[in-house]
Amino acid sequence: MNWRAATPQQLRMIVWDTGAHPVLRQEAAAELSRRRRPMYGKVNFKLRKVYPR
Question: Smallest Cα–Cα separation from 27: which of 4, 44, 50?
Fold first, then answer.
């Protein structure tokens, strides 16, 4: 199954389906967690250019 093409509702149905294969349930849960994580981490500092003396 193409996990990236599946809608979130379809993934949730697979995760909560007790009759689904455990590997499919695990892959659907991994895809849901991948979609929930932030795309880019927040950076609290700016890199300063340091020139040699």
Answer: 4
Quote the CA–CA distance of 18 and 16 in Å, as a whole number.
6
Which pair of structure tokens corresponds to residue 18? Answer: 């007790």
Nearest to 35 by CA among 2, 15, 7: 7
21 with 13: CB under 8 angstroms? no
Q: pLDDT (tens digit, 9 = 90+) per residue, 17-43?
A: 999 999 999 999 999 999 998 877 777
Q: Which residues of 25-52 are buried (b: 16+ CB within 10 A; e: fewer)?
A: bebbeebbeeeeeeeeeeeeeeeeeeee
